[in-house]
């Protein structure tokens, strides 16, 4: 009976209680470990993401944390810096500056410097004085001998006004040039007397050389009645500005069409009508290569006296030399327009030089520029045909028989002693060139030189023997040098900073930005990689701990 009554074993109860306590204790230990592992995992993530302390009361630390610890912002900045640096190498700041210059916007430096050009151009004129006029007329000397006098120096002032922007991507303006005498730069007395050919007499005779007998006889009688001869004495000032002869007044009364002006002063003839309307190409539509090239001159494609039927040459694509197109190459041919020689002249690349610490290209005037054109229409020939080295300019001077050439015929075309003696050709003194910064098209130096001559026709049909002495001569009268002598300091330093300083400076800046962008981006990638590594380690620890506790629990329970 007693065996059937259930009894409680104190030891068993104690054992069960102990077992229950162990189980509960293990569970609490496991939960605590899990929570601890989770907390450690969160702390590791926080440390790997920035290792920042959480102090919300400190404003400075908060700002620092927002800048340093926000890895997403750093990643965005890194990508932006990489994009900016790569874009800077593709579209350089200099290219953007040139692209903006194409528009010639008022208020910006390129437009302001062009609209009010600096006073940097000197005009120097050298006059040929005849030293043997009596011996030549008497037949003792076969040729006229000349002696150069000069230079007489002027400042050529250029004004741009009446500026308007057209809808077709062009700009129209009026360009006016005039001279200012520079007393302090001159040593030649303008009141000094020189002996020169009688331009009025020889010019009218050359226009009448093919006239009928009665016209020629009447002109001879008119010449005989005048107090002047085939050579005249003039002051230098008169020769340049007030070269008047009574025969001009008389002829103008009888035949006005033959005498467009009664003043044959050399500089007066050039500058009396030196205000012209010019239209040039600007804007992105035309690109860098056509920037500031002439589209029309005086609302026409050619100078006064020319037409497309007789002359295919136009002024389109040429420039007045104040500004050349951008991004020049060594293969480019620069067409330089000078109204006084009645045409645009080609300049070809010669060499690279450095001036004012800026690399520039030197373009020389072609030594064949005044030669005859054998294929096609020669717009600058006369009748009878001119030799190589001589270019007709009579159309620009109302039919006066004026021709242009190289000073002193320095190229040997024509040979220097062909018409007169006393010339001393020198390439260094008489050639023409321009030094241009190729990136911006800014001319740093320029020398344009040309010689004014009179073409005398065959006068053998006139009765006076003196006329015969001048037949078929080309008489050198003077030669002119236009010299751009540097740039104002502000333009010079702007170009220097743009083409010399900025390229390496921006290279350093963009490389630095690129490296910083890669650093920020790689830092974020490395942070993410470390985060995944820590996460995998925590998972492994968690799994190992869980397995260990489970095994221990099972052993104790059993």
TrEMBL record:
Superkingdom field: Eukaryota
Primary location recorded for the protein, binned into one broad class: membrane
Segments passing through the bilayer: 76-98, 494-522
InterPro entries per record: CD36_fam (IPR002159)
Keywords for this protein: Cell membrane, Glycoprotein, Membrane, Transmembrane, Transmembrane helix
An annotated GO cellular component: plasma membrane
Organism: Leptosia nina
Subcellular location: Cell membrane
Protein's recorded name: Scavenger receptor class B member 1
GO MF annotation terms: scavenger receptor activity
Record flagged with keyword DNA-binding: no
Family: Belongs to the CD36 family.
